[in-house]
Specification:
Helices cover 0% and strands 35% of the residues. It is mainly β and 78 residues long. Strands 4-3-2-1-5 form a 5-stranded antiparallel sheet, with no helix packed on it. The protein is elongated, with a radius of gyration of 14 Å.
């Protein structure tokens, strides 16, 4: 059995932001070490997008998307 990848998205993946539904491409990914006293696992994946925002996003803030996908989260694209 292959180990499960620690990051859901690879560089170049298209993702949709949960907050505003805009589609962007992942340009960088990394890991953030979390304190042992937190409820989070030891490391969590973070991503930087091509949206001219300097900060990173947590995985739970992103949905997989296609470059042409403009539908709201949870809706079918027709």
């Amino acid at each position: 059995m292959r180990p499960r990848p620690t990051s859901q998205f690879v560089i170049g993946s298209f993702v949709r932001l949960v907050a505003n539904g805009q589609v962007h491409r992942v340009v960088w990914r990394g890991k953030l070490a979390m304190p042992k006293y937190s409820d989070w696992p030891g490391e969590i994946a973070v991503y930087r997008l091509d949206n001219d925002y300097w900060d990173c996003y947590y995985e739970y803030q992103l949905y997989p998307a296609q470059p042409w996908d403009s539908s709201a989260p949870g809706q079918q694209h027709s």
